[in-house]
Amino acid sequence: MKMNFRLIAKLGLLVVIIGFCMPIACDMNGFQIANISMENNDVFTGILLYLLFISAIVGLLIAVFILMNKKLPVMCDWIAIIVCIASGLIVYFSKFNSSGFKLQSGAYVILIGWVIALVCQLLSSFGKRR
């Protein structure tokens, strides 16, 4: 039985979505932090947090198309994963890292989801080159 690492990578993005809905910092989930950022004229942080969530959703939609045997370029997977990880890391290094926020369980669940998605996507890409 052949493992489909491309689909397993999408499960990592599902873990990111779950983590986004959990408390990330200050007992707030990703939506609450994004809304407060937008209200406090920190639109860039709010947009990046929403972009993190939306790119993870796009990754799940790609999984649905894969399961329906539709041919999608692997570049779509890479774009969704890179946008998801990059937007989250920019927010972390620009806001949470310097502000002294204590990260909570949701942030760590997101990190685990990123690792799963990235590692499985890399395995999927390397497996096709053999």
Report on the architecture of this protein.
The structure is a single chain. With 130 residues, the chain is an all-alpha fold. Helices cover 77% and strands 0% of the residues. It has one domain. It has 5 helices and no strands. The mean pLDDT is 90. The chain has helices spanning 5-20, 30-39, 43-67, 74-99, 105-127.
Write the layout of secondary structure elements.
Elements: H1 5-20, H2 30-39, H3 43-67, H4 74-99, H5 105-127
Helix pairs in contact: 1-3, 1-5, 2-3, 3-4, 4-5
Principal-axis shape equals: elongated
Give the tally of structural domains.
1
Question: Stretches where pLDDT falls below 50 for ≥5 residues?
Answer: none
Average residue pLDDT: 90
Compute the separation of the termini in Å: 17 Å
Oligomer: single chain
Q: What string gives the helices and strands in order? A: HHHHH
Strand content: under 5%
Overall number of strands:
0
**Sheet having the most strands:** none
Radius of gyration from the CA trace?
15 Å
Based on helices, strands and strand pairing, what is the structural class?
mainly alpha
Share of helix, binned: over 70%
Q: Helix count?
A: 5
Q: Briefly, what is this?
A:
The chain has 130 residues and is an all-alpha fold. The protein contains 5 helices and no strands. Helix content is 77%, strand content 0%.
Key structural traits:
130 residues, mainly alpha, 5 helices, 77% helix, elongated
